[in-house]
Amino acid sequence: MEPFVAGDSAIGASTAAAASNPLRSAADDPIRFFLAGPTYVLQRVREAQLRPPVAHRNVEFRTAYERVATALKQIFRTGRPVVTATGSATLLMEAAVVSTVAKRVLHLVNGAFAERFHAISRAHGLESDQVVVPMGHAVDPDLLRQALRRGRYDAITLVHSETSTGVLNPLADLARVAHEESDALIVVDAVSSLAGAPIETDSWGLDVVLTASQKALALPPGLAFAAISERAERRRADVPRRGFYTDLARYLDKHREGGTITTPAVTLYWAAETQLEGLLAEGIEERWSRHAALQQRTLVWAAERGLQVPAHAAHRSPTVTTIAAPAVHSAPDIVKALATRGFTVSSGYGDWKPTTLRIGHMGEVQLSDLEGLLAALDELLD
Length: 382
Ligand SMILES: Cc1ncc(COP(=O)(O)O)c(C=O)c1O
Prior knowledge:
- Mean pLDDT is 94; it is low at 1-17.
- It contains 12 helices and 12 strands.
- Helix content is 38%, strand content 14%.
- By secondary structure, it is α/β, with parallel strands linked by helices.
- Strands 1-9-8-7-4-2-3 form a 7-stranded mixed sheet, with helices on both faces.
- The structure holds pyridoxal-5'-phosphate.
- Pyridoxal-5'-phosphate binds next to helix 3.
- Residues 37, 88-90, 113, 159, 163, 189, 191-192, 212 line the site of pyridoxal-5'-phosphate.
């Protein structure tokens, strides 16, 4: 199967700004949905799901599966298989841990989703250590180096874009240190970064990179995707208890037969086939640039208003920005007031909930959409 190519005539002409998904139509204008996931799904992608489901071992589904898998390889920047699961990202977080760790795992923790990896390894009775840094900070590669000099691990887990805080970990640097100091597999949660921030799965030597459909890929929730390296695949021989629905080796075997391990959410593949084609027509690097521009605009707006951004300045995610609410307003009140104007954002996560707002500027959001939200916020905060 040929990879999707930009400008595929089947997609039609772009109606939005220069770098954009050509599937976007007037029916989608303007986007007012700025959660840090799930994100806005284009009308044509939603409509694709109306196609009736078929048997998942038949040729119609296998063709869609292959097209989705081929597109995902380009998005993950890998020559290795990208498997798909029906489930949310947490399913593949758990699968990644149980499929790569025989005994001991190191978790890099700087927020709620990084902690989830730790909860998973504990639930499976695995030995684990953590490198913990305060919320709002990224993990310093030197801390990883020190931890790897103290202990031997089967795998290291980390979250690239910590959605709970808006911090982007220095993934390429962390991976380089991991390779210099150890043979531990590198397991990356790229849930809110993939397709929004640069990730080079193969050239950075990442072993399991996982994401979910409902974030920067701008698909409905329900599918999860993982690229699996050759090193990680070889680990199957050393890890006897990988579960069943969580066994990445099983996903790879079935992938090579042209499909999924069990009955998939077939209609979500119709949506994925459509959306990933549009996404690649925009161009993955163009998509990264668009997300960087959205982030910059959000940061400039916050600075002009004198609002603090608690994520450390050198490590901010291009897909989600956490902003401290002005002292006179509670963040949940701002969220509610925005909702009455038709805009959806969320307040912060955990301890940051009462005092911060999270703006998800990912997926199909364009600068013109973001300007609408910022204007509504300006009105509210004046
Ligand atoms: C970084 C990150 N990891 C993991 C998850 C969990 O994803 P899911 O709810 O799809 O299991 C999320 C959800 O927001 C997330 O942002």
